[in-house]
Amino acid sequence: MTPGAQNRTLLVSQIKDGTVIDHITAGEALNVLTILGIAGTTTESLSIATNVASGREGRKDIVKIERRELRKEEVDRIALIAPHATINIIRDYEVVEKKGVTIPRVIRAVVKCPNPGCISNASEPIESAFEVLPKGLHCLYCDWMITKDIASHII
Amino acid sequence: MQHIISIRDFSRRDLDHLLDRAEDFAAGGYDRNLLAGKIVALLFFEPSTRTRMSFASAMARLGGDSISVDSVEASSIAKGETLADTIRVVSGYTDAIVLRHPKEGAARLASEFATVPVINAGDGAGQHPSQTLLDLYTIRKSMDIDGLEVGILGDLRYGRTAHSLAYALSLYQVTLHTIAPRGLEFPEGLNHELHDRGMEVKAHRDVKEIIRDLDVLYITRIQKERFPDLGSYYDVASSYRITPETLQGVKDRLILLHPLPRVDEIDPRVDSTPHARYFEQSRNGVPVRMALLSEVMR
Ligand SMILES: [Zn+2]
């Protein structure tokens, strides 16, 4: 067994109930948590492993959230920065459900529009909304396109 | 419920339909009471007297009423209130809202909170679809849009009327010639988008090198603020100024358009040539806005 495979087995099998997000693009684990709205203030117990050796991607990040099962719509939001992520729902140490992420057509409240003149940056009761296009993210309010470094625009 | 927010939302069929309607209104044989009993709110958070008057006039010609709120009043309504709340409240008073607002995307937001149709009359550096429709309408009155060589001149980097017109023209068989000073060319993204939509776009620096091939020349203002000093502004602006001399050897049918107000971009001696259509263009705002108002309040 390679050290990487050993690591994975070890890391994934540790939690009793909850969600394991595996195969996150290396270095993106904290951004994934930000997008999921799981930050420092959360009551869930979290473990994060970064730059774990992995046969498939070379290196990857893993996030484990105890006692919380994430819904598919919640997790799809991370597809932008971690398109190969897999979601494992764990009950009593067993993986009961495993799914990939799909990039949604429209993402809301994930990315902040870089255009200072955009109404989505004013104090209005709306969330930012971007259409996901092959070239990048298109702001549904002001038509601005984000073509690179999407992670730096995450709210 | 139909909103008029962005020229991007229109198909060629939608555009042609609205332009046909505008033509019917301009011809005069229409029902003067088409919108009798209807009220439109003209909600202007920044001044644009002409656009506001043009909508008020269009509404009156169709027998409807308008409640006009100018920029000073609008900003006091809005004091401490979100645009979303203002729109919810004004929706209760009227049958449609015409909105002008300094923030880009304001009209899209308004359409999410309004219970009546919203017409965008300009949002910041964003969209101003009724201007684009009247530009198209003015071209179409002179000639078939398909097959034209159209030049767009001036500040093409920031000029929203130029972007929006280019976008609309990409629905037709048009070759677009952009004529702009260094640094004020079309944004790269827009060039790609137009190209993806099947439009040929050719960039020029000097209007003289292309003007003889053009059927339409759309002139926009070059703003002083874009230049480091007045000297370099005057150098650039004078080389982009349209004079009777610039027009030597152009096609007979060439028409010159400008969204107005103009400053130095067009020599007043050009006004009396058969090419000058910018005053007619501004008059066309009324039938075009009649078409928009009747479309959303049918
Ligand atoms: Zn935006």
- Gyration radius of chain B, rounded: 19 Å
What is the domain total for the residues of chain B?
A: 2
> Count of helical segments of chain A?
3
Q: Low-confidence parts of chain A, pLDDT < 50 over ≥5 residues?
A: 1-8
Q: What does this protein look like?
A:
The complex is a heterodimer of chains A (155) and B (298). Chain A has 155 residues and is of the alpha+beta class. Chain A has two domains: 18-100, 2-Layer Sandwich (Alpha-Beta Plaits), CATH 3.30.70.140; 106-153, Aspartate carbamoyltransferase regulatory subunit, C-terminal domain (SH3 type barrels). Chain A has three helices and nine strands. In chain A, the strands form two sheets. Chain A has a five-stranded antiparallel sheet, with helices on both faces. A four-stranded antiparallel sheet of chain A has the order 6-7-8-9, with no helix packed on it. In chain A, a hairpin with a 2-residue loop joins strand 4 (86-91) and strand 5 (94-100). Chain B is of the alpha/beta class and 298 residues long. Chain B has eleven helices and nine strands. Chain B has helices at 12-27, 49-61, 71-77, 83-91, 106-113, 129-142, 160-169, 188-196, 230-239, 278-283, 285-296; strands at residues 39-44, 65-69, 96-101, 118-123, 149-153, 175-179, 200-204, 216-219, 255-257. Chain B is globular. The N and C termini of chain B lie close together (10 Å). The mean pLDDT of chain B is 93. Chain A binds chain B through residues 115, 117-120, 122-126, 135, 139-143, 145, 147, and chain B through 6, 8, 82-84, 101-106, 108-109, 112, 123-127, 189, 192. The structure holds zinc ion. Zinc ion (ZN) is lined by residues 113, 115, 118, 120, 139, 141-142, 144 of chain A.
